[in-house]
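Memo to structure team: turn this sequence into structure tokens by end of day. - J.P.
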Amino acid sequence: MLNKIAVIGGGAAGIITVDTLARCQDQSWEIVGFEGRAALGGVWSDIPGTRLDDPDIFGRLRTIATEIDGDLSAEQIFHQGSPVVDVRGHVKDINQLLPTSYDQPLKLNKTTMLRDGIFFSNKTGLHTDSRSSVPKGFMEFDPIPRRRTTSGDPVLYTWKEVRENINDYVSKNDIYKYYRMNTSIELIDKMSHNEWVVVAKRTDAAKNIEEWYLETFNAIVICSGYFQVPYIPFYMNKFTQHNPGIHNFNVTFPEVLVHTRDIDQWYHNVLPKLEAKDETHKILIVGSGMSCIDVLPKIAAMQKLNIIISKIPGTSESEQPIEWFNEWLSNNDRITLKSSILNFLNIKGHPAVQFTDGSIVDNISHIIFATGYMPSLPFLARNLASAIKVYVTSDKSTLNLACTGASRVTSLYVHTVSISDPTLGFVFNSQTPIFQSFHLSAQMLAGIWSRYNNLLKLPKVTKNPWSQILPSIEAQLEWARRRLKDTGNNSKFHCYNSVSVPKSSWLAECREFFYDPSIANHMLPTGFEMLIERSLKEIEETFRKVSQSGS
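Reply from structure team:
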């Protein structure tokens, strides 16, 4: 029986999953949620303008003592410095954890780890002008959207509105009672047919104490999200045989490099100083996708900034998602478009970069990595990942076959269920934060797991109850092969946005497994085509308005 379920992550996906499982009235399973931060909400838990002195990504990477040659994996960042789990994802001494439990943990002095300020950061990329990138009707916590948007109302939520919606929903449904806050999952492994074991760490910052313990579960849902691990080219992968020198550059020129995850701090701590100076500054932005569209307007509004935009290494020139933005970039005489970075340079004591076309830009004030995020499962034990074949794919555009923002998660049926082990579920694999995608996966898991339990209650149980619930293994693999053929072996495999969800077969593929099939016909907002069109127009209008405000 599936009597105890762990839900890893307390963002929108985790909140929806916990609430969906809790609404299964014919099930008495225990639900335990784990969230590494002090508040639920994931990306939306941040409050722009606060915690401006918190550790930033490149500041943490500067603490690495040795030169990095493009081989720093998310797993190494996650585990480096851990007193219990090594960088290969193995428990150093299992005997010290065997007698532990939630009530009787192993207490250790708090350890400073490389990941502090990279994973579980209080800063999540939100800034004062942040808005949702999809219409309001696609960001509802109720599975059936009930809000109506009139013709004169904004279609996109402000960050404050999203945060208020989360807090209201969490309070109304008493979601915090299921969660253990400030608690990270350090390792997941499978001990027997129906028993998962997790290594958890509860941090008490006030007492400078870490509490480590083992706990077993019958099923696991990973809801840790696509926006957990910032993608940092050159640190995390190699594109050429030589070392581009990013780590030495980062150490030599502290505070020049910044990831958009930390843009709120940069807006408050750095941008006003640039504006106050008389001289012109050069700002290089790496990447021209949605992260660039998000952060560029405030920078473009300042007339004393010359802006260079370079490609993310390994990406296609044609991967720009919004046509009008391409046109805006090409027609703006303050924007210089460049190829990918080849080398990070120190020219007479000043930061500079060389591009793959051979050109060099010197005296750069700041380099902003608008490179997005990447999927990662650093807590999944390596032997387990190998056995069930659930892992993050390598990117063939990198010489060392590293994971990048173009990677995907393998061996899942309709992005939700491990094909090898249906007691491992995922509610996060849609790259665009459309809450309908979370509802699809959460309903599917609630449906198949409740049916499994109900089958086990029958007098005669078949040898493999899953065969009565899910399609055959071959049929599930065939679904993955078809999807792979349509999208390629990259992050597009999981990509469903507000435009593609209504047109895709994902809803039809999941609905037969729903715990509550009655909601399937009502999950899309009324007039979603109009909402999508209006949202794209609103994104463009807001971008142009803010970027021109300084002219």
